[in-house]
Amino acid sequence: MTRSPFRLLRAFLVTCLLAAGSGCATDEPDPLVVLGPWTGAEGAAFEETLKALDDGTGREYTYEGTRSLRETLLSQMEADDPPDVAILNSIGELTEYARRDKLRPLAGEAADRAYSPWAPPLIVNDLDREYWVPLKVDLKSLVWSRKRASDDAPTWCVGLGSDATSGWPGTDWIEDILLHQQGPDFYERWATGRVEWNDEAVKHAWTTWARLLGDRSRASVERSLTTSFEGGFDPGGNARRGLLDTPGFDCTHEHQSAFVRYLYGDDVQVQPAARFLDGQPEHDGVYEVAGDMAAVFSDDPGAQELVERLSSPEGRQRWRDKAGPAVRPLFPKTAGAAPTGSGDPVERRIHELLTEEARTLCFDASDVMPPILRDAFHRAVLEFFRNPADARLDRLLEQLEAVRDQMDEDYRGDDSFQPPDDICASQGG
Question: Signal peptide span per the entry (predicted)?
Fold first, then answer.
């Protein structure tokens, strides 16, 4: 009698279950899991890149994209089930994970691609090593406007909403002003906890921001506090339209990172922010940057290989090829895959600023700070924006200094929350 193939399969599965899997395991390894911040079109492009990169490796790559990256990663680590690779934008968080032995040092060519200032070397257990590599970078210190808008008396678009991280567009303002007023050395010491928050130079950056924004009505302030940095939706409710196009925002200029180019068409221009920030001319060639860095959380050798492939010139070019014009990634100048032949003049201009004209790049200060201090900075910016009085500012800066002091007290002898010192890097040569 011939047995049904379905009965044979069922018998095989029962045997496997009874044997608790012994003798039934396949030779195929588990998929490598990558946790990252990109969703929507960005996430789809990165997922397609992973599919292209797994060719010939014998491994399958699975991508999990989330806007709640820190919360998701912490939950997975608490469950003792971290991803093989995670992509984070916070040096403060990465430093904490590395010094608590949650990360694996990079190996091979990936370690050579730990470009400054995105991936400074870190001393852990008395060894100086590289723990993450920038995959995608963003240029900050930019101002967006319509091509015909006058720069003589700009009115500023401000949208501070961003779910759990609301306030970061305001911290970007203060960081950028401080960088251009005081220069990279002072900025670096402040961002890494070696300058007090109530220092007069730091306070001056906050008051400069308030003065540049000018007088605002209560309705305007509330609108900025409750509106996303992405602006409103188009009439159909299907796509974001950018703050320059959002009804109710009577503004001509926007201080924002390079990534917002996906919100606008070809009728905008982008300029270095230095001329708008009441800074010193000698600091005009200094730019603030951000980045999305890949770190290895597992002992699987395939995770190291994946980061090496992603960070290679070939991997970056594949990513650009998979991404649409509005979400094409930018890379450090040493990483290849420049937007040659791109028909987008805004993208070409940003790439020129990042790779050719910038003399010094400094990493986003709040993303260098320990998460506790970074979050307090975000909240203080929201309070100051609502009421930029001098007395309020003094109180807020005292509170931030108290957070810094308390962290020094709580973690004395524990360097897990101490960021690396070198977060600015010369781009000469």
Answer: 1-25
* 48 burial via Cβ count (<10 Å: 0-12, 13-18, 19+): middle
Q: Measured between alpha carbons, how far is 310 from 43 in angstroms, rounded to an integer?
A: 15
Could you state, in order of their start, the residue ranges of all structural domains in the chain? 32-138+291-356, 142-287+364-426
CATH code of the domain occupying 142-287+364-426: 3.40.190.10
User: pLDDT tens digit string along 376-413?
Assistant: 999 999 999 999 999 999 999 999 999 999 988 877 77
pLDDT tens profile 323-365: 988 889 999 876 555 555 556 889 889 999 999 999 999 999 9
Q: How high is the pLDDT of residue 54?
A: 80
32-138+291-356 shares its CATH topology with 142-287+364-426: yes
Q: Which long-range contacts (CB under 8 A, 24 or more apart) does 197-204 make?
A: 197/397, 197/398, 197/400, 197/401, 197/404, 198/394, 198/397, 198/398, 198/401, 202/178, 202/397, 203/393, 203/394, 203/397
Taking each helix axis from N to C end, the angle separating 91-99 and 371-386, rounded to the nearest 10 degrees, works out to 160
- Number of CB atoms found within 10 A of residue 6's CB: 8
Nearest Cα residue to 360 out of 167, 209, 182, 114: 182
Integer angstrom CA distances of residue 344 from 42, 247, 382: 18, 26, 35
Which token pair is 8? 């044979």
Q: Which of 360, 359, 333, 334 is nearest to 188 (CA)?
A: 360
What gap in Å lies between CA 272 and CA 289, rounded to an integer? 12
What DSSP string runs through 34-66? Answer: EEES--HHHHHHHHHHHHHHTTTTS--EEEEE-
Q: For residue 294, give Cα distances in angstroms to 69, 133, 307, 361.
A: 13, 5, 7, 20
CB atoms within 10 A of CB 423: 25
Exposed/middle/buried for residue 210 (C-beta within 10 Å: 0-12, 13-18, 19+):
middle
According to DSSP, residue 108 is labeled H
Q: The tokens of 387 are what?
A: 């009421």
Tokens 């759990």, residue? 164
Top CATH class of 32-138+291-356 equals alpha beta
